[in-house]
Structure formats: structure tokens, C-alpha cells
Design a protein that fits this description.
GO terms for molecular function: N-acetyltransferase activity. The chain is α+β, with helices and mostly antiparallel strands. The protein contains six helices and five strands. It has a single domain, classed as Aminopeptidase, CATH 3.40.630.30. The longest helix has 15 residues.
Amino acid sequence: MECVLRPCRAEDCAEVVRMIKELAEFEKLPDQVEISDQVLREDGFANNPFYRCLVAEVPPEHRSRDGHTVVGYGLYFFTYSTWKGRNIYMEDLYVMPEFRGKGIGKKLMSKIAEIGVENRCSQMKFVVLDWNRAAIDFYQGHGAVDLTAAEGWHFFHLEGDALKQLARGQLGQ
């Protein structure tokens, strides 16, 4: 399918938020999405952006049943490993269901990997839910290694009150 990958523009943020919500619905976590297109715009298009994003766009004649031409996105940012140096972290890779199986996801992931290589990154990291067999197979089919299975790493996070309490030195012993 004809599809163009391009950097996300500020005016695309509403479309990206739409797809973020679709992804959260698929992942059975719709109540976790707090982002708005305004915040996404501020965080991605300020002087020091927190993330970068690519969108997949199809020509108007191939628009979705709901009229969308932006049909996928890959959101990423740069991070650092004290063992390996520069890394690229793929936060989301999403293609609308009616456009899956047409190579769009592979194009997005390959482009993010290319950006990582161009920026001298030694690794590309991302997470996937343990029940999402299709995504696991897709990633492993492109050479990804499940670090939980291979090396026993677990991925943790702090948010909300726990993060604020730790910042104030109020958690732990």
C-alpha cells in the first residue's frame, strides 16, 4: 500500500492522540490515557522536545473508513545506557487495524531503527504486553530479544503519589 512516513507536525497531534487512545483500548487500558493533544503538542514541539514522532499517511483515496489519512505512528525518544551508550526508545508503534499487514508497521519500526543508527545508538528498546502474541511475534521476527525471558530483567516505574513522595524523600527506609 502506498504510504508516506514523515515527521509528526504540531497539527497532527489530535490524530496521534486519537491513535494513542485506540492503542490503549486495544491494550485494555483506556483509563490510563491522560494525554491531550495540547500537552502532546507542548511536549513535542517546544524548544527542547521530550519525544519525536513519525506518522504514516496514506493518500486521500486510501483513507480509512472513518476518513483518516494518518493511519499509524511511531513515537520515540533518545535515552542512555551506562553499559552501551546511546539508545533509542520506541514508546509506541501503532497502525490502525484496517491498515495492518500492509508493511506500514515494519516501515515505521525500520525508520525508527534507521534514526537510531544515524544517531550512533547501540540499542533500540521497547516494551510489549505479555499477552500480545502478535506484537511479540512481529518484534521477534525482526530480531528483537525478550530481555525478561533471556536475562530476567523487569521494567519498573513510579508515578503519581509514589513519585511525588519519593521526590520528597518520604518513601522507603
